[in-house]
């Protein structure tokens, strides 16, 4: 698809880490009609409000980055909230887009859609081939439903609704809450506070041996716009009607121990790293197969150390506004 900078684009979830990165990317490319709406002006759980908003605005494109997200503890504590709110947000936006003749939509999912014991690296074909990770199953099922919503509107109504599934994301506007954050923001915060206190040791849960893949959110935004802008013929040649989602990642992973050492360097922590093997490790490895995305002409460009420095700089400069409570 040729880039049309005067298209009217709605980014749902613009205050989140991914949505804000997509807005930055679109602005950098020269898009001039980017529309956003915070919770104070639009409740995405309200079907009638979403319908009225779409009817009034007449969008050309929609990026569906809005979601209720959280770490393992939050997913365990509030499973009903996670499945209900995500299902409603997705259904309301996709249906409103269709009814108001929006032909281009990009849905952002999560790598947790894949089975807990999926072969590594995880290919798109692994979807629905096994049991999900129990701790975030409600969230994962909602995200799978989002993929199938897009596929179903494409099949029945001829829409062009696409889906991208990112690996573990990090970067500016991340969540640094002590209980609900993911591994990178959690470690960045802990190392930062350890340096401030002058600690000479930092204890990390688990053995440090599990391997994880991490993608800077600016790379995720670049990939999202790239997939949205792909010519139909190229996109269709690399996807299938019933397998339309595309993995987004670096294709490179590292151990949690290696990640911790890099974060220690980035934050200036010079003390001892101790791994508490009595605490759970989780899955031994989670790596995305990104060959389909590479065939579509995109690959990540921000290496982990540079990305961590960028994320840490943002945290230090925005610690008062960062989601830390």
Automatic annotation (TrEMBL):
Positions that bind substrate: 190, 205, 212, 281
Keywords on record: Isomerase, Multifunctional enzyme, NADP, Oxidoreductase
SUPFAM superfamilies per record: NAD(P)-binding Rossmann-fold domains (SSF51735)
Pathway: Nucleotide-sugar biosynthesis; GDP-L-fucose biosynthesis via de novo pathway; GDP-L-fucose from GDP-alpha-D-mannose: step 2/2
EC number(s) from the headed UniProt entry: 1.1.1.271
Residue(s) at site: Important for catalytic activity: 110, 112
Bilayer-crossing regions: none
GO molecular-function terms, A-Z: GDP-L-fucose synthase activity; isomerase activity; NADP+ binding
GO biological process, one term: 'de novo' GDP-L-fucose biosynthetic process
Gene3D superfamilies given in the database record: NAD(P)-binding Rossmann-like Domain, UDP-galactose 4-epimerase, domain 1
Binding site for NADP(+): 13-19, 108-111, 143, 166-169, 182
UniProt keyword annotation of NADP present: yes
Catalytic activity: GDP-beta-L-fucose + NADP(+) = GDP-4-dehydro-alpha-D-rhamnose + NADPH + H(+)
Record has Kinase as a keyword: no
Similarity-based family: Belongs to the NAD(P)-dependent epimerase/dehydratase family. Fucose synthase subfamily.
Function: Catalyzes the two-step NADP-dependent conversion of GDP-4-dehydro-6-deoxy-D-mannose to GDP-fucose, involving an epimerase and a reductase reaction.
Protein name: GDP-L-fucose synthase
Source organism: Pseudomonas endophytica
């Amino acid at each position: 698809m040729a880039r049309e900078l005067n298209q009217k684009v709605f980014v749902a979830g613009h205050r989140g880490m991914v949505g804000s990165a997509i807005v930055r990317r679109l602005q950098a490319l020269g898009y001039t009609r980017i529309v956003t709406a915070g919770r104070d002006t639009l409740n995405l759980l309200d079907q009638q409000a979403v319908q009225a908003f779409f009817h009034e605005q007449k969008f050309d494109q929609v990026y569906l980055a809005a979601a209720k997200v959280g770490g393992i503890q939050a997913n365990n504590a509030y499973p009903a909230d996670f499945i209900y709110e995500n299902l409603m947000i997705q259904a309301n936006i996709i249906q409103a887009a269709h009814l108001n003749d929006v032909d281009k939509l990009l849905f952002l999912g999560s790598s947790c859609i894949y089975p807990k014991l999926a072969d590594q690296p995880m290919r798109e074909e692994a979807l629905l081939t096994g049991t999900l990770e129990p701790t975030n199953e409600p969230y994962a099922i909602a995200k799978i439903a989002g993929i199938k919503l897009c596929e179903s509107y494409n099949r029945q109504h001829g829409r062009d609704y696409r889906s991208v599934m990112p690996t573990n994301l990090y970067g500016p506007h991340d969540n640094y809450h002590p209980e609900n954050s993911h591994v990178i923001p959690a470690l960045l915060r802990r190392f930062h506070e350890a340096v401030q206190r002058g600690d000479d040791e930092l204890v990390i849960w688990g053995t440090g041996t599990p391997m994880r893949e991490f993608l800077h959110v600016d790379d995720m935004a670049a990939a999202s716009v790239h997939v949205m802008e792909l010519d139909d013929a190229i996109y269709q040649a690399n996807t299938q009607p019933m397998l339309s989602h595309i993995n987004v990642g670096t294709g490179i992973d590292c151990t949690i121990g290696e990640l911790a050492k890099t974060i220690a360097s980035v934050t200036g922590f010079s003390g001892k790293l101790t791994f508490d093997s009595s605490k759970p490790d989780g899955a031994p490895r989670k790596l995305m197969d990104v060959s389909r995305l590479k065939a579509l002409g995109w690959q990540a460009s921000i290496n982990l150390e540079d990305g961590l420095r960028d994320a840490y700089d943002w945290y230090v400069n925005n610690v008062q506004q960062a989601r830390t409570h």
